[in-house]
Amino acid sequence: MYPVAFDYLEPRTLQEAVELLEKWGENASILAGGQSLIPLMKLRIARPRYLIDLNRIPGLSYIREQDGCVHIGALTRHVEIEESSVVREKIPIMQEAVRVLADGQVRNLGTIGGAIAQADPAGDWGPVILALNARIKCLGPKGGREMEAMDFFTFAYTTALQPDEVVTEIAIPAPSAPRLGTYVKLERVSGDFAIVSVAVQIDRDKDGICRDIGIGLGGADDRPIKAVPVEALLRGQKLSPKAIDIAARRIEEIASPISDLRGSQEYKKEVLKVIFRRALERVIERASPTTGGSR
Amino acid sequence: MEDRKTVEIGDKVRRRETQRFITGTGTFVDDVRLPGSLYVAFVRSPYAHARIQGIEVQPALSLPGVRAALTGKDLAPHLTSVRGGPKPGIKIYPLAIDKVRHVGEPLAAVVAETRYQAEDAAEAVIVDFDPLPPVIDPEKAMEASSPRLFEELDGNIVYELHFSTPDIDKVFKQADHVVSARLSSHRFTACPIEPRAYCAQFDPVSGFLTFWGTTAGAHGLRTRLAQMLGVAESKVRVIAPDIGGSFGVKNSGYQEEVVTAFIALKLGTPVKWAETRIEHLRTARQGRDQIHDIQAAVKNDGTIVAIKDKILADLGCSYGVDNSITSSALYVPGVYQIQHYQVDAYGIATNKAVHGSLRGIGKADASFIIERMVDIIARDLSMNPIEIRRKNFIPPEAFPYRNVTGALYDSGRYDLCLTRALELANYEKEKEEKKRLKEKGVYRGIGAVLVMEPTSSSRLYTTGGYATCRVRIEPSGTVSIFSSMGDQGQGHGTCLSQIVASRIGFPLDKIYEIRGDTLVTPFGFGTGSSRSSIVLMNAALVAANKLRQRLLKIASRNLRIPYDRLTIENGKILDRDNPNKSVELRDIVRMAYGAIYLVPEDEEPGLEVTGYFINPNIDYVADEMGRMNTFSAYPYAAIVAVVEVDIETGFIKIVKYCTVHDCGTVINPQIVETQHYGSVVQGIGGAMYEQILYDEEGQLLTSSLMDYKLPTAEEVPDIQLGHLVTPSPFTPLGAKGAGETGMLGPPPALASAIEDALSDFGVEVRSTPYTPEKILALIREAKKRGEVGQASGDRRKAPQTRRVQGA
Ligand SMILES: Cc1cc2nc3c(=O)[nH]c(=O)nc-3n(C[C@H](O)[C@H](O)[C@H](O)COP(=O)(O)OP(=O)(O)OC[C@H]3O[C@@H](n4cnc5c(N)ncnc54)[C@H](O)[C@@H]3O)c2cc1C
User: Is the pLDDT of residue B396 over 60?
Assistant: First the structure.
């Protein structure tokens, strides 16, 4: 619970942060909310020689809507997402997710940029931004670039970021039917990482045909995954119990969870199927005219 | 002070300790900051079982700030005695010398100027290990071919207990039914909010060693330190300041205690060691972890005639054998009138952390096993589990009741307690609700059990015996209670003050409790086994009564009124027959110290008295049949739990948890209630979430709170609590202890409720914990059994774990 010695660096601009990263490379770590990094350092699993603190850089924390997208600065705290009226209105699924992400103390400090850079296969933001087809913006010595969320997560705790790149923003296309999304998470005790989790966001026409669907899965593989084949399966379909059933079985097939203390691979597959079905049912319920229309 | 009304035993006096703790102004061991203090860190084994070929401390010594490094070999010549191994003659050193026997066992210590430097230094020590095959599975450990933890022994069985009433086999042969099952409890730990910490200071001039430690037994620790280090016990002072919970884990001796003290002696500089949570999960005492192969001989009408049990207790690497085995082996008959009993218990050494006290040690296993067994019997005989309990309960008129193993139960009204719990839970309504919900596809179940928990143990040469309180009214009118026992958050100070106040009529805010400092408190044994409310509280009552008598005698002489006509009221001693004749308590105090000629000649001077209380009814030696009573009181609780099981995910929701408990006289309802709530929650944690898990290599898989899951506030169900008061006839107060019964309830109560919820499938819950994955697996298994049963035309779900004869 006592980290090895490190130097603490406090850049004032993003440019400076990137320069420091370029200079110290693998020996340096970015510090955002510190809710994953600090525990790892205390366990001496992470042993950075240099800690580059982003917290003194202005303008990295924001939530704003522009061009049909909600832009969230990398340093935006989980709690700010929880309390944002833009998020509540445009992407309520994020609010549903953040309420089951860790606990109040962690949410006060942890950031969305840090969470996705941490790329925990059982983290909550991964499945959500995959379901929403978010883009990740980052900055490196050669300038900025953008990635699809799908291309961002490459392995457990590993992303497509270069060692000298910083995540600057998560840009999320606002779903056309904001209410038709949900996040379902199974956790051992409250505040824990997911055993498995499912994020779904749909859009459907007035006949109940699924126009579009985004599905993100947590705890389902060595990284958060987007259930692309199942999305394709359901797109253009009526979400009948039978269709859902077939899709749920498909989910079980494409999942390849890691066995760990949260559950064996078999268990995770089985319950993933269950919560996927429940997520879809919940969304359909929300869409049904008796419970308040499709939008 | 005089106009204030004082308190009575049983009043809801506000816990006086709370404010300090919730405002963060307590003083815990790690808050003790001594000038010039150095910090200790330990080098620990990464292997479960390995020979130590060599330890190189030089790389550590060359780091900045590092002042010393020592190994077991450096330490051994300076120890006049060492802690006992599993059997006499096996020497165990506080730093492992030849061999390590569990992950986390300390083998070297480094001392540095800062904690950070100490941690760096510990990491720099190079140890050459020769790994040995680990012994993990207790059943395999019993086999002759198993590797041995202690080469000096001819196996890994380090303790055995055998008890039997005569002709037990005959009883079983004549039984209408024999029901058998394999039941087991898993290993978990207490996880107090404050891990362990020790701080030591040696004054070379006076030769005095002062030691601050997270211990539930300051006096015992003092004796250990003096004996091991060869210093005069009179020159050792142990202080246990505020302690952030123990639940048993701080009752035992630990290697780090003596090493920290030794370093302070050797360097002449104060030193401190404060445990990290990871060290705690690796090395603090762990509990439960027993396998029972149990059989019951039952009559057609549900009378349980006899029990046979075989216990395998996984004791971990067993530095000495704790009391878990005797406590569970002797109490399996529980609250039932079982006349024939046989038990064969084996304590087995494995390469895991040392087994020890955990709230309800041994007794929790016993109550889980017997309560589970009664449910299994009920099911096999197609009887109502509540009725079968009522049928077998020891009836109220049988108390004091000598059970089959010689235990002497003080008092109890089990049937009534269960009835009250059923009422509290609205049992009949719940049953209907269950049926109603079933139609909607909700699997709800109700479980009802009764757990009994022996308290205030005392055994030959192990902790117990008695407690002492010295009470002094100070010249200025405050009252000091010097307690022989410490406090780890229970709030003993509140209860002690309340008891003393009720007898001498002083207001509560003038009464102070002094504890946890061996220099000023009377000698005594540690907190544990819920003994405070039996021996300590009664010692305070004895002292307070003496003090009251002394006050009255002084007043009697001065008022010239016979002593037995006097009473204490509103700060005065007055004549009951003529309340106008009175003297202020304040004046009596002044006389006692200042005008001692006014004190009756036959009274001792001053206002300081000592009260003792000895554990009642303890047998220190067994009779020729092996029977003995090792506990003084027998509180119990009935529980009705309602759960819902999500049959697709295995998740369990506790809808409500209703419990009626009987801890005898309630000294302070608030303290009893909060103890109970905490205890129940800890029991739920142990039944559902908390697990110490080792892999086949003996690596600890749950070494941080990320993996060792404690329940959070969100997991705490609706707990409803009812009191039943059946005082113990063997103590003046009649209190029986309230710390542990709560924890015993959840494992059997939740198992019952889960089985009830899943009765359609015939699910059998045979082991803790009730994790969702396990529940789902049980459902699957049961369904399969059901299919097999149906296919073969056998209506009874193929019994895997039991054998049913007759009928
Ligand atoms: C008790 C506890 C429970 C938790 N439970 C959950 C949970 O249920 N669900 C969940 O999703 N998460 C959970 N978390 C993790 C939490 O969400 C963290 O906040 C998050 O994983 C990391 O975010 P951070 O801002 O704290 O990042 P940090 O800890 O500061 O950094 C994490 C990693 O990301 C890198 N990094 C940070 N910011 C950037 C950036 N802008 N660009 C590039 N790299 C960057 C760092 O170098 C580091 O490697 C939990 C954490 C704790 C302590």
Answer: yes
Chain A CB within 8 Å of residue B277 CB: yes
pLDDT of B544 reads 98
User: Do the beta carbons of residue B374 and residue B297 sit within 8 Å?
Assistant: no
* Chain A closest-CA separation from residue B646 CA (Å): 11
Q: Does the CB of B701 have a partner CB in chain A at under 8 Å?
A: yes
- With CB atoms and an 8 Å threshold, state whether B772 touches A4: no
* Amino acid at position B307, single letter: I
pLDDT tens-digit profile of B266-275? 999 999 999 9
Q: Which of A60, A62, A106, A137 to mutate to test the pocket of ligand 1 (most atoms within 8 A of CB)?
A: A106
Q: Which residues of A lie inside 8 Å of B (Cβ-Cβ)?
A: 1-5, 39, 43-44, 103, 186, 188-192, 195, 261, 263-264, 267, 270-271, 274-275
Whether the Cβ atoms of residue A132 and residue A173 lie closer than 8 Å to each other: yes
Tell me if chain A has a CB within 8 Å of the CB of B689. yes
Which of B115, B701, B712 is the closest to A189 by Cβ?
Answer: B712
With an 8 Å Cβ cutoff, are A186 and B714 in contact? no
Taking CA atoms, A176 is separated from A91, A147, A171, A204, B217, in Å, by 10, 22, 15, 9, 66
Q: How confident is the model at residue B85 (pLDDT cuts 50, 70, 90)?
A: confident
Q: What percent of chain B stands above pLDDT 70?
A: 97
Query: In this structure, are residues B632 and B664 in contact, taking their beta carbons and an 8 Å threshold?
Result: no
Give SS3 for B282.
Answer: helix
Classify B469 as helix, strand or coil.
strand
Task: For the full predicted model, state whether its pTM sits above 0.80.
Answer: yes
Chain-chain contact of A43 with B704 (C-beta, under 8 angstroms): yes
Of B330, B306, B467, B451, nearest in space to B389 by CA = B451
Is pLDDT above 90 for B800? no
- Please identify, by atom number, the ligand 1 atom nearest to the C-alpha of residue A39: 53
What whole-number distance in Å separates Cα of residue B467 and Cα of residue B465?
A: 7
Closest A-chain CA to B115: A2
Cβ of residue B326 closer than 8 Å to a chain A Cβ: no
pLDDT, mean of residues A205-209? 89
pLDDT tens, position by position, B718-767: 999 999 999 999 999 999 999 999 999 999 999 999 999 999 999 999 99
Q: Do A189 and B707 touch (CB under 8 A)?
A: no
**Amino acid symbol at B610:** T
ipTM associated with this complex = 0.95
pLDDT tens digits, A244-292: 999 999 999 999 999 999 999 999 999 999 999 999 999 999 888 665 4
Question: Reduced to 3 states, what is the DSSP secondary structure of residue B491?
Answer: coil
Torsional sign, CA B618, B622, B627, B630: positive
Residues with Cβ within 8 Å of residue B463, at least 6 apart in sequence: B217, B220, B251, B457, B525, B526, B528
Give me the domains of chain B, ranges plus CATH numbers.
37-132+194-244+250-283 (3.90.1170.50), 286-458+625-791 (3.30.365.10), 466-524+532-614 (3.30.365.10)
Query: Tell me, what amino acid is at B189?
Result: T
pLDDT category, B805, cuts 50, 70, 90? very low
- As a whole-number percent, the residues of chain A with pLDDT over 70 amount to 98
Nearest CB partner across the interface for B711, out of A189, A261, A267: A189
- A192 to chain B, minimum CA–CA distance in Å? 8
Cα-to-centroid distance, A37 and ligand 1 (Å): 7
Domains of chain A and any CATH numbers: 7-53 (3.30.43.10), 63-173 (3.30.465.10), 180-286 (3.30.390.50)
Cβ contacts of A191 on chain B, cutoff 8 Å:
712, 714
Q: Tokens for B620?
A: 């220190």
pLDDT above 80 (res A41): yes
H helices of B505-617, where? 537-559, 585-594
